[in-house]
DNA sequence: AGAAGGACCAGTGGTCCGTA
DNA sequence: AGAAGGACCAGTGGTCCGTA
């Protein structure tokens, strides 16, 4: 109802036919304290073997004739494929400089998803149909149909743990506080999500689930080595 | 762990190459007080248009040569495709006569499914993987692998509401008490299932969901016609 | 080099319908 | 005529990787 048109927070900055811009070598380094999940890389190997197929090329909104490119193209007119600006870390209230979006905008998208879920739930209840408790494909479809083309499943899933516990660092670091909470709560990350006011409607990211599992085993090994009580700290 | 071999309760009566047996015209009649779900038949129509494909023929366990049928066949030796005896309504403790299975056996299957689910859950928790709360395809696969070949998804889903509230009648009638409970609880059949000690691990059958929806609308219409308070009886 | 997201894919929930 | 269940199918959760 309220979120029908394209979103105002970011849309004036939507990149269309993004011009080459200077790449500042981001200083976050590569060697991940949090990147390595023991035993997870092996399972991913077989998937890499597949997917050698050619992708379909989707030519979006091309209304001009082929071989003819002197229309009102090249500037900002010809509607090429749009995609949103990359996210950068900002403080609450801070506006992202350059062609970037800040965290306020990211979190705003999560709030919109919640609204869309509630609408889907209300429709389902009215019809006596199955009622989703999480943001499902159905909800993403509904959002897109409602005009929120900038909401998509890979993006929202990608950052969801940052929505739960943002610490001013960024993606990799955002896992850390959630793992720490899981450690205190018996490693039940699903229950933690379901009890969280914002995370409850989101599926637990596989990466976070794996981190909790790895960390649990590490913790159990070190605590049993030191002779502490197993599994239940106190 | 405990339910590995073929089940003892019914297996001695498993029908193999079931001989033609006299069909007693069952006296339950056809016109359904509970069969008609208003507006549901229309949606099912488009599915009937499809599925005109030839099915694969699965020749189970045929070890004898083709064209050669004088082995130790015909009696009870040649392992033809097995299927379980049909269920009939029995009282608790009553043994089903003839080539039939009683409700004790059916309910025993539901208990086995619960056991299999618990085992799958324990494995998932140990591995830090997603942990199912309901009897999923994964659980049925696990049951089959564990030797419980007599457990299958269509059968268990078919009778699940009878497991919840058996009244001594049979399938159609078993919906009635659950709909009555739903009426008293604000028509939230999912919550009723989740709160039920035996039903919690099962998906709500579509049919039951539709019956609750239809009945809710009927109740709402009649109560508003009589001037009563809407939706919330008292 | 790094990020946004279209599109793919294995396995799901649901149940039809060829079979006995 | 009525029931058991193999097998099918649309749409799911999950995320890869061609793209900008």
Automatic annotation (TrEMBL), chains A, B:
Where are the annotated segments for Disordered?
13-88
Q: Which family does it belong to?
A: Belongs to the FLO/LFY family.
Q: Ranges for the Floricaula/leafy DNA-binding C-terminal domain?
A: 74-163, 164-220
Q: Which domain of life is it from?
A: Eukaryota
* Keyword DNA-binding belongs to the record: yes
Give any single GO term for biological process.
regulation of DNA-templated transcription
Keywords attached to this Swiss-Prot or TrEMBL record, sorted alphabetically, are: Activator, Developmental protein, DNA-binding, Nucleus, Transcription, Transcription regulation
Which cellular compartments is it found in? Nucleus
Q: Does the keyword Transmembrane apply?
A: no
One GO CC term on file: nucleus
Recall the GO molecular function terms of this protein's record: DNA binding
Compositional bias, Basic and acidic residues, is annotated for 56-65
* Name of the protein this chain belongs to: Floricaula/leafy-like transcription factor
Please describe what this protein does. Answer: Probable transcription factor.
Which residues are the signal sequence here? Answer: none
